Task: structure prediction
Amino acid sequence: MLRHAKAEHTPGVLDFDRVLTKRGERNSREAGELIARLTPDLIVASPSARTRLTAELLGLEGVPIEFERDVYEAYTDELFEIVRRTDPEIDTLVLVGHNPSVHDLVVQLSGPQTETFKPGAFAVIELPGPWEELDPGTGTLVDGHQP
Result:
């Protein structure tokens, strides 16, 4: 679970169109180096500009990116449903989304391990069974990163 990296707040720019700051770009690349060790099979991301850029700047060559409209402005229960729909052939999924939902999903899956989930933060959660059986409390936090 990855929160998009630091984004600009430019007057007159719609929330959906906000892009990353230079720091956000650096943090995305840094996260990509760490996430690459997990050998992800798929990235699912909100299509907003800042999440799109975060996902692309991870630099995970050969890992497909699917932009899922429902991740943008999703409530936590909607993120649960999105993850539950993951193809059973996928072993490692990277979900790139927005707070507070991404942090809430981490907390609901694995407990309150961290009080904050800064832009560019990610949590690695291990699940004991198939995606479709994902429920609150079924995950174990095994790693994480705060930029």
Remarks:
- Residues 2-145 form a domain with the Rossmann fold fold (CATH 3.40.50.1240).
- The mean pLDDT is 96.
- The two ends are 14 Å apart (CA to CA).
- The longest helix spans residues 22-35.
